[in-house]
Each structure stands twice: as structure tokens, then as C-alpha cells.
Amino acid sequence: MTVATPDASNSTRIEVLQNTENIVDAYLQIFRNSKSKWDYYADVKSVIFAIDMIEKALIDTKARGIKSRFITEITKDNFHHCKEVIMKIGEVRHLDGVKGNFGVSDTEYITTTMRESQIETTATPTPTPATTATPTTALPSHAVYSNVKEDIQQHQYLFDTLWSKGTPAEQKIREIEEVTVHYETKILDNPEEIVNEIGRLTARSNEVSNCLTPGDAV
């Protein structure tokens, strides 16, 4: 369903796509039309849809020399998928709290709304306790597609801004695998916060060293 046709003379358009087949076709079209890049910002369920359902097309874009970049939230639950699948297709960066999704190429833009759907199976169901959850997967319910230049420019700028704030996937995965300790330096000027922090450090440490100037007290 076409929502608007800003300039029919050069085929620019904005469309709302209503089912999974049409949405996947739109992604495939974007990959085919891409000249140099594909940038995708997505939460966990969106990025897995984009990879699992159209992984071959993404691999083909890489073979054509298309540079792909992905921003998602990497956690202990999905870092294996990021490491073994997504990072083999393109460059990946981690960002805390990623919600929703959008993708942008040289000439096209798309954003997709995901919904939870029961996994279909032809196998004979095995009786399970009433408390066992029905398996679900995330599928797109609708999407908005645009090849309007202003939409592309706006979302490219947004992606580049988020990309600059992201952590390289290799670093984030290393932190998860090695349970890396994060070091932090803070300046405390509230007496109550200072007392609480000293109490916390004392409780967690076998030894505490203090450096005091004349007149200071703990």
C-alpha cells in the first residue's frame, strides 16, 4: 500500500508493507540496489530476523564488495550469534539499550515493527507441563520503506552518530568472555556519598590505603 508519492516523476516513494513476504522482498530489493553500503541499527530480535531470514543475500552483498555495518546490543545471551554469524557478514558495534530498528543503504531506507509469533511445526506435539511456554519467534508485522532522499540522509546521519558512540563488538565480546572488570574514576563532593563509598570499599576489601592532607578526617 503506497502511503505517499512525493515525486512520481523520478519514482520516489514511501510505502507501508503489511506482511512478512513483502517485507523480506523489500530487504532483498534494497540489497540488490545497494551500490556500496548497508547500515542496520537493530535490537536483538530484529537483527536476528534480518540475519537468519536473509543471511544468504547479505553474504552475497559482501561478495559484491558492499560494506555492511550493524549496531545492536551484545549480551551474554547473544554474543555467540554475533560472533559466529553477524560479524562474518559485516562490522558490528555494541550499544546499550538498543530498541527498534532501521536500515539505510545508498538510496533506500526501511524500518520494521516486529511481533512475537508461535513457531509452526509439523512434528507431533510432545505433552509439556502447563507452565512450559509456547516457543515463539519474532516476525515483522509491518514495515515502512522509503527511497526519499531526505529520509535517507536523516537516518544515515542518525546511524553515523550512534555508530560513533558504539563499542567495537570484539571488545564487548572479550569483556563478556573474560568477565572484564570495568575501572571507574569518580569525584564525590557529597559527605554522605563519601561516607557510604568508604563503607562499601571497606566491606569489600581486605586492606584499604588512605592518603590524607592536613586537616582531613575519615
Structure description:
With 218 residues, the protein is of the alpha+beta class. It contains 7 helices and 9 strands. It has a 9-stranded mixed beta sheet. Strand 4 (67-72), helix 4 (79-84) and strand 5 form a beta-alpha-beta unit. The longest helix is centred in the last third of the chain and has 17 residues, at 149-165.
Indicate the topology.
Blueprint: E1 2-7, E2 12-17, H1 20-33, E3 37-42, H2 44-52, H3 55-63, E4 67-72, H4 79-84, E5 91-94, E6 101-105, E7 109-118, E8 136-146, H5 149-165, E9 167-168, H6 169-178, H7 191-204
Parallel strand pairs: 3-4, 4-5
Antiparallel strand pairs: 1-2, 2-8, 3-6, 5-9, 6-7, 7-8
Briefly summarize what is shown.
The protein has about 220 residues and is an alpha+beta fold. It has helices spanning about 20-35, 45-50, 55-65, 80-85, 150-165, 170-180, 190-205; strands at about 1-5, 10-15, 35-40, 65-70, 90-95, 100-105, 110-120, 135-145, 165-170. Mean pLDDT is about 80; it is low at about 1-10 and about 120-135.
